[in-house]
Amino acid sequence: GAGVSQSPSNKVTEKGKDVELRCDPISGHTALYWYRQSLGQGLEFLIYFQGNSAPDKSGLPSDRFSAERTGGSVSTLTIQRTQQEDSAVYLCASSRDGGSNQPQHFGDGTRLSIL
Amino acid sequence: AQTVTQSQPEMSVQEAETVTLSCTYDTSESDYYLFWYKQPPSRQMILVIRQEAYKQQNATENRFSVNFQKAAKSFSLKISDSQLGDAAMYFCAYLRGSNYKLTFGKGTLLTVNP
């Protein structure tokens, strides 16, 4: 596609429910990133994919968070047993490869609200 | 660990005027990249400008330019002839060479007054 596409745009759910956030990167981009943007913490790195593998999951805040990427394209970020502190905007980005000379292009994010 | 500091939570500028947003960073690396991203209310992070640390020449993109002071670890963004569409949150970001993990500052909210 023309840009990084994320869905849903907004998600409201009750505490304790599981949620899935989807990211469709720019066609041909092998690298994919998830970031979280919250009021208290600013923008934080969560996870990096190169193709289908995730060499760096160091930013995932707890084992309730997981992510996968299939076919080297679409990625899903799953949060299990959601807590109120999970409320944030989740941003996805992609780049041509994982090299630092390749700019990261961001989607519009998913605003997650936990009641 | 690398840190990025934006000391101005909010700034305002009159339309057609010039404004400078400040950013400082802390790193012991010599190979790195610096970025300014713009985030309008639509939430999409848009890359405004990029600077490679090994380049002495300051990057420019149309009305946007940077003042990169490597020794001082300073990376300010100048917006000339400000337009209403420039109103947004601006984030300074750091990327270590051969890495992929962007480190962001807290952001500066820019208001453009007509």
Structure in words:
Chain A has no helices and 11 strands. Chain A has strands at 5-7, 10-13, 19-24, 31-38, 42-50, 53-56, 65-69, 75-79, 88-95, 105-106, 110-114. In chain A, the strands form 2 sheets. In chain A, strands 2, 4, 5, 6, 9, 10 and 11 form a 7-stranded mixed beta sheet that branches. Chain A has a 4-stranded antiparallel beta sheet with strand order 1-3-8-7, with no helix packed on it. With 114 residues, chain B is mostly beta strands. In chain B, strands 2, 5, 6, 10, 11 and 12 form a 6-stranded mixed beta sheet that branches. In chain B, strands 3-9-8-7 form a 4-stranded antiparallel beta sheet, with no helix packed on it. In chain B, β10 (88-96) and β11 (103-104) form a beta hairpin. Chain B is globular. The N and C termini of chain B lie far apart (41 Å). Chains A and B meet through β4, β5, β9 and β10 of A and β5, β6, β10 and β11 of B.
Structure at a glance:
The complex is a heterodimer of chains A (115) and B (114). With 115 residues, chain A is mainly β.
How many helices of chain A does DSSP assign? 0
Q: Would you identify the regions of chain A where 5 or more consecutive residues have pLDDT less than 50?
A: none
Radius of gyration of chain B in whole Å, from Cα?
A: 14 Å
Work out the radius of gyration of chain A.
Answer: 13 Å
Largest interface: A-B, 25 and 26 residues
Q: What letter string, H or E per element, gives the SSE order of chain A? A: EEEEEEEEEEE
Structural class of chain B, please? mainly beta
Oligomer: heterodimer
Q: Helix/strand-derived class of chain A?
A: mainly beta
Task: Summarize the main sheet of chain B.
Answer: 6 strands, mixed
What's the average pLDDT of chain B? 94
Poorly predicted runs of chain B: none
